[in-house]
Amino acid sequence: MTQVAAESVVPGTERTNPPAYDVDKVRADFPILSREVHGKPLVFLDSGASAQKPRAVIKAISDVYENEYANIHRGVHYLSVRATELYDEAREKVRAYLNAAKASEIVFTRNTTEAINLVASSFTGQRLKEGDEILLTELEHHANIVPWQLVAERAGAVVKPAPVDGDGIIDLAAFEKLLTPRTRMVAFTHTSNVLGIITPAKEMIKLAHDKGIPVLIDGAQSAVHLNVDVQDLDCDFFTFTGHKLYGPSGIGVLYGKAELLESMPPYQGGGDMIEYVTFEKTTFAKPPERFEAGTPHIAGAIGLGAAIDYVNGLGRDAVAAHEHDLLQYATAQISELPGIKLFGTKGEKASIVSFLHDDVHPHDVGTILDQAGIAVRVGHHCAQPLMDRFGITGTVRASIGLYNTRDEIDKLVESLDHVKEIFG
Ligand code: PLP
Questions:
Q1: Of ligand 1's atoms, which has the minimum distance to the CA of residue 189?
Q2: Tens digits of per-residue pLDDT, 206-263?
Q3: Into how many domains does the chain fold?
Q4: Cα distance between residue 19 and residue 42, in whole Å
Q5: Which of 140, 221, 352, 384 to mutate to test the pocket of ligand 1 (most atoms within 8 A of CB)?
Q6: Could you give the CA distance from residue 43 to residue 61 in angstroms, rounded to a whole number?
Q7: Ligand 1 center to 228 CA (angstroms)
Q8: What integer is the mean pLDDT of 290-315?
Q9: Before 288, cis peptide (omega within 30)?
């Protein structure tokens, strides 16, 4: 999939959309995009937080509830068997989407956060001793910091961040140096939710593996924008979340290499994750069921499968090319505005643009944009250590999805000009 070096943007030389991608047709698939906000057409530039849902996903969910719903795995009756088939098909779609070797390597969770907590608790937590280290990076979302702190604290281990430079690029030499004989786990984001920067994941995984250290990749943002291939990456664990991938909220994914998942104890106990239960002793099911205690989000998994079908139907490369075009266009336009500083414009990037007005607080910018019908995210983006690294408290973040247009970027830029007029 195409990735963008934002520094190569030359205003006025932006590429045009590939003809195959009909963004108006795509927009028509998303009912919410036709609504107004504060009397203005909605311009939704907050897909990095949670993306809007196409009719195909909404329909898949309502179809299950209207026609094919029952609890899975436990029934001999028609609807239970049918719902189980659909749930298993969804797992297979996720497997193919990530190019995992086996469907049993795909565990459904509530979200990325739960997937990371699962690994921290059932894999890393089991192996940690006092003085051990867990290596992260300064780019991380709190979801890829706090779970590690919780298990580290229990064991007397330490969480360390690998530094990034002023542009948010990982210092690979420093990262390598921080891989010590005490390092038990490496976990880092594949794409920064604040800057859109894509980390050199394959290289970092290789460096860690050369020292025998397992790696978890937080793919919450990358699963949306990149062609992820977990076998090619050779990561031990990969996590993502359905709601950013145009699927429902409440469903997420943990990929784990089969032999690692096999070696891990359950994260939660209950129905569906057992082999045999007596009061004296319980034996557990094989993965993935071992990690899916209780009734799962059945319709959520099926909805995620529909979202994957939808994105595949548009063509992942075509989507990436469209987003790439908008990223370049937005970066070029915003960099022209006086008094605005862009963050993270170097290196390979996914379609996220973060910036700060010289004199206006991000919350004020967000409020003025909202009045114009434009939804952006403002604040620390659940990445306070990265804000500290840059010496700021927050940014304004426009995150571009497959349904955004150049016209919407123009509206954003016009409104940012308006912010300047209001605040002088
Ligand atoms: N990691 C990254 C990079 C994210 O952007 C997010 C959400 O914004 C998460 C983790 C957490 O995702 P969720 O809230 O779906 O668990």
A1: 3
A2: 999 999 999 999 999 999 999 999 999 999 999 999 999 999 999 999 999 999 999 9
A3: 2
A4: 25
A5: 221
A6: 25
A7: 17
A8: 98
A9: yes
Residues serving a catalytic function are 382
Query: Which residues neighbour 173 within 8 Å (Cβ) at sequence distance 6 or greater?
Result: none
| 54 C-beta neighbours (distance < 10 Å), count | 28
DSSP designation for 297: -
Cα 42 from Cα 406, distance rounded (Å):
14
Amino acid present at 353: V
Question: Measured in angstroms, how far is the CA atom of residue 141 from the centroid of ligand 1?
Answer: 7
**Does 169 lie in the same domain as 42?**
no
Atom number, ligand 1, closest to the C-alpha of residue 241: 15
CB of 115 within 6 A of ligand 1: the answer is: no
23, pLDDT greater than 60: yes
- Specify whether 44 is located in the same domain as 193: no
Q: Which of 234, 240, 232 is nearest to 215 (CA)?
A: 234
Residues 218 and 339 in one domain: no
Q: Are 114 and 252 in contact (CB under 8 A)?
A: yes
Q: What is the CATH number of the domain that holds 127?
A: 3.40.640.10
Q: What pLDDT score was predicted for residue 75?
A: 82
Residue 303 has pLDDT above 50, yes or no: yes
- Print the domain residue range for 358: 4-52+315-423
Distance of CA 276 from the midpoint of ligand 1 (Å): 35
pTM: 0.95
